[in-house]
Write a structure and sequence with these properties.
mainly alpha, 9 helices, 0% strand
Length: 208
């Protein structure tokens, strides 16, 4: 017997490729035009796949939206981890201060990405604003924001090992600063407010 692939393995590979194209197309259109304004036909046309391919990979548009939100979360985590690795390479350790600023830098990296109609703010919050109260997508976005604050708190606890309550309070303060800067940056279509927020955060850390 040979080790040639079975026929069942080939469709799986094609479906995987179609899924990636559909998710990438949905990400572009949802961010540029909004979730509600983007129909299935638009997504499949941009992805270059048949409509049936979408339903072979996602049970519905709602399922695709959830996959998009999850992908945005993982994309941001990737930016954050890359910034942490840069700190590790330069400093040899991941200092608490550098970790906090890595969170701000990851948001700035997100703003600096190339977007079809320019930067429009946090893609997760933009999508959540279109979803009804109680929607599981809003819960996913909330968990993402909670994770960002938790990351800040973890880095601050490194800076303030004997002051855990203060570390959590400062983490909440910085998360508000970060999200406010992100909202203003999205309205202005540029990352300048995020740069200002990073400077404010750095100044605050120096005073701890």
């Amino acid at each position: 017997m040979t080790d040639t692939p079975t026929p069942a393995a080939r469709p799986s590979k094609r479906q995987g490729s179609a899924r990636a194209r559909l998710l990438a197309a949905a990400a572009r259109r949802f961010y540029a035009d909004g979730v509600s304004a983007t129909g299935i036909d638009t997504i499949t046309a941009e992805a270059g796949v048949a409509k049936m391919s979408l339903y072979n990979n996602f049970s519905s548009k709602a399922d695709l939206v959830m996959a998009y939100l999850d992908a945005r979360h993982e994309e941001w985590l990737g930016l954050y981890r890359r910034r942490l690795e840069e700190i590790q390479q330069v400093q040899g350790v991941q200092h608490g201060r550098g970790g906090v600023l890595a969170v701000f830098d990851a948001y700035a990296d997100h703003a600096a990405s190339a977007y079809e109609h320019g930067f429009r703010g946090c893609g997760l919050l933009n999508a959540a604003a279109e979803l009804p109260a109680g929607h599981e997508g809003r819960d996913m976005v909330r968990r993402h924001k909670e994770e960002v604050e938790s990351l800040l708190a973890g880095h601050l606890e490194e800076l303030l090992p004997d002051r855990p309550e203060e570390a959590r309070a400062v983490a909440e303060h910085l998360s508000f600063l970060l999200e406010g800067a992100m909202a203003r940056a999205g309205l202005e279509g540029a990352g300048t407010r995020l740069e200002h927020a990073r400077t404010m955060a750095a100044n605050l850390l120096d005073r701890l």
